[in-house]
Design goal:
Radius of gyration: 21 Å
Number of strands: 14
Bound molecules: biotin
Helix content: 25-40%
Strand order of the largest sheet: 3-4-5-9-8-7-6
Order of helices and strands: HHHEEHEHEEHEEEEHHHHEEEEE
Strand content: 25-35%
Largest sheet: 7 strands, mixed
Distance between the termini: 51 Å
């Protein structure tokens, strides 16, 4: 079978480039057929670099994330979070909420190779194909009151930006409150879910879920996402090691589980503001079936969005759907 032959040829080449022309000559097929076989292999989770004038080289077989591979990327000195790595789950957030009810400790992390029911805000589907992305949830048992927890999502956005900058030399922007953007397209979504004790309003736990598009090719996104989603591989022009990015992210998130979170607030809040592309933009704020148009003015100390509406009134928004004109095809 051609796909297997292409794979064998790439494997034999020991990580060196082999041109499409050479492969097509060796295998007696067209270059287009070689290209199609390479795309198929990428969709199966093989990491293959393609370069103009050089051809293809196999970086790694479908890498399964394991506890060991994450630990080894973190390095020997690092302290590992209680960590569970799953082949497949409905949603790492849902899985971790089940663990939280059974008493899992603050700082527990769940990672999955794929999610069959990955979720975003407003129960939107978060596309989570095997081997391509990072689907990670972190359990926190915070002492902050529920109305102050916007900062968890905001801090997480900064932590993901820092980790991406370290490992990929790319600088994403933040769409308030929970999306990371590269080149005007969505790269990452964050979903923070809380469990509250109804009598007291005390936060029992928070689960912060992070989904990053890492090694998808643009044509691997479903049609409804292809114009609005991107991946690190597309932006960097090379495959990205998920383990290295997870290690950088866990190191950044450690600040949140430690006391440095509050002490470092002025610093990370200023990074959030600098990266936030929502500020100064025309926005629509949708809540409870109502939609209001205005301009995003600033991010306050609790990471809420300050908006001036068309009637001149100013509101601090900390929930609801905020669309930015020109982003994801939104035109008010
Ligand atoms: C959004 O786009 O609104 C947020 C997407 C959050 C996706 C992550 S992937 C890991 C965790 N598990 C989920 O089901 N969702 C979050």
């Amino acid at each position: 079978m051609l796909k297997q032959d292409v794979l064998n040829a790439l494997t034999k080449n020991n990580g060196q480039f082999v041109s499409g022309q050479e492969l097509s000559g060796q295998l007696g097929v067209s270059r287009a057929a070689v290209c199609k076989a390479v795309k198929f292999l990428c969709a199966q989770g093989y990491v293959i670099e393609s370069r103009t004038n050089k051809g293809y080289r196999l970086i790694s077989p479908p890498a399964r994330l394991t506890r060991e591979s994450v630990a080894s990327a973190l390095g020997s000195g690092a302290q590992l979070h209680p960590l569970e790595v799953l082949d497949s789950t409905d949603s790492t957030n849902t899985h971790l909420k089940r663990m939280a009810l059974e008493g899992a400790p603050h700082g527990t992390v769940v990672l999955a190779e794929q999610q069959t029911g990955g979720r975003g805000r407003f129960d939107r589907v978060f596309h989570s194909p095997p081997g391509k992305g990072i689907y990670l949830s972190l359990l926190l048992r915070p002492t902050l009151p529920a109305n102050k927890l916007m900062v968890l999502t905001a801090f997480t956005a900064v932590a993901v930006c820092r980790a991406i900058e370290q490992t990929c030399a790319l600088r994403p922007q933040i769409k308030w409150t929970n999306d990371l953007i590269l080149g005007g397209k969505k790269l990452c979504g964050i979903l923070t879910e809380l469990s509250l004790e109804s009598e007291t309003g005390r936060v029992q736990y928070a689960v912060v879920g992070i989904g990053i598009n890492v090694n998808q090719e643009s044509e691997e996104f479903p049609p409804e996402l292809s114009s609005i989603a991107t991946s690190l591989k597309s932006a960097a022009g090379r495959p990205i090691s998920r383990e290295a990015l997870i290690a950088a992210l866990l190191t950044q998130l450690d600040e949140m589980t430690a006391s440095a979170f509050e002490a470092g607030r002025a610093q990370w809040l200023s990074e959030y503001r600098a990266a936030c592309m929502t500020i100064g933009q025309a926005v629509s704020v949708q809540r409870g079936g109502q939609k209001r148009l205005g301009t995003a003015l600033s991010i306050d100390e609790d990471a809420a969005l300050v908006v001036r509406y068309e009637d001149g009134s100013v509101e601090t928004v900390n929930s609801g759907e905020v669309s930015v004109r020109g982003l994801y095809g939104y035109a008010p």
